[in-house]
Amino acid sequence: MELAQSIKQWGEELGFQQIGISDTNLNDAERHLQQWLNKGFNGEMQYMAAHGLKRSRPALLQEGTCSIISARMDYLPEPPAASQRLLEDPAAAFVSRYALGRDYHKLLRNRLQKLADKISAEIGPFGYRAFVDSAPVLEKAIAEKAGLGWIGKHSNLINRQAGSWFFLGEIYTDLPLPNDQPASNHCGQCRACLDICPTQAIVGPYQVDARRCVSYLTIELHGSIPVELRPLLGNRIYGCDDCQLVCPWNRFAKLSAESDFKPRHRLDQATLLELFAWTETEFLQKTEGSAIRRIGHQRWLRNIAVALGNGKSTDAAKTALAGRLSNDAEMVREHIQWALRKLDGMNV
């Protein structure tokens, strides 16, 4: 018990807002995952079906694991009202708030390593492995068991005191630590997230069809965005925060104090035309150390072309789109042509 309390204190000293501890029994989450996969809701995310049972049975992933230390860190870089204003401006580029700053993976992993080092300094060597989206881990189910929050109807984790604008990380360990009380669900009859979803990807409470989700379409999907969904993307070019922006529990969310999560390269206020003008060299330079880099320049242009097509029909937008029609990638050209037809008022 004393070690567990020390771990939580050390975690807070390292910048985590909360630390919780759970066992490794994820049977309920395993059933939910299998049902989700059986419906094909994972789309092209084959990694969600890979690795057998390692995702839901921690000891298969890290031998000897009997306890999991779960940590959360706030990342909200600006008041939600600023995000809402961007979504209402068709000329603005909307990037999911988690991706405005530096990639969180390295920062959280370094902090988790420091926490493990503190534990080692206190008790000596022990078996562990730290994760931040780096392996098949059911992080939200684990965090729920550890008392960090409950999984909401939009499938994000919600904390009563902090909303949902936070990252998660885990340390699988062979230490027999006392478990925290799992979080209880406080969504009640609210369905704000289901109603606000621009593509109606939340097909039912706690059921997200990723194939319709804006985050999936703009980040995970490698090919063409389905034509029928393009008009619904609005000006969202990397991810989507609508379900979090509308969640009533996020009135308790606090702005992050982490400088690495602050917006870089004016991504919090850039226009679509500014970002569409980036060359591949500029894209690589300005997304260095950012989660955005993973989609590459071609998908970046694909997403912005769709957003421009959803905006106002201006000479500047048409000129910018036409100027990239010689793009090497057929996929990009196809989305540009769609956008130009839409701006010309044609039936797309």
Average pLDDT value? Answer: 96
CA-to-CA gap between the ends? 62 Å
Share of β-strand residues? 5-15%
Order of helices and strands: HEHHEHEHEHEEEHEEHEHHHHHH
Helix/strand/pairing category: alpha+beta
- The proportion of residues forming helix, as a percent range, comes to 25-40%
Uncertain runs with pLDDT below 50, 5 residues or more?
none
The rough form would be described as: elongated
Major sheet characteristics? 4 strands, antiparallel
Give, in spatial order, the strands making up the sheet with the most strands: 1-2-7-4
Number of helices: 14
Number of domains in the coordinates? Answer: 2
Q: Rounded to an integer, what's the Rg over CA atoms?
A: 21 Å
- The overall strand count is 10
Family: Belongs to the QueG family.
Keywords: 4Fe-4S, Cobalamin, Cobalt, Cytoplasm, Iron, Iron-sulfur, Metal-binding, Oxidoreductase, Queuosine biosynthesis, tRNA processing
Binding site for [4Fe-4S] cluster 2: 197, 213, 240, 243
Subunit structure: Monomer.
Describe the structure.
This is Epoxyqueuosine reductase. It comes from Methylomonas denitrificans. [4Fe-4S] cluster 1 binds at residues 187, 190, 193, 247. It is an enzyme of class 1 (oxidoreductase). Monomer. By secondary structure, this protein is an alpha+beta fold. The protein has 2 domains: 2-77 and 99-173, no CATH class; 192-254 and 262-343, no CATH class. Helices cover 36% and strands 11% of the residues. It has 14 helices and 10 strands. It has helices at residues 2-13, 27-38, 58-61, 80-87, 104-123, 139-145, 192-196, 214-220, 242-245, 272-276, 280-286, 296-309, 315-322, 330-343, and strands at residues 18-22, 67-74, 94-95, 128-131, 150-151, 157-158, 166-173, 202-204, 207-208, 236-238. The strands form 4 sheets. It has a 4-stranded antiparallel sheet, with helices on both faces. Strands 3-10 form a two-stranded parallel sheet. The protein has a two-stranded antiparallel sheet with strand order 5-6. Helix 12 packs parallel to helix 14 (330-343). The longest helix has 20 residues, at 104-123. It is elongated, with a radius of gyration of 21 Å. The termini are far apart. The mean pLDDT is 96.
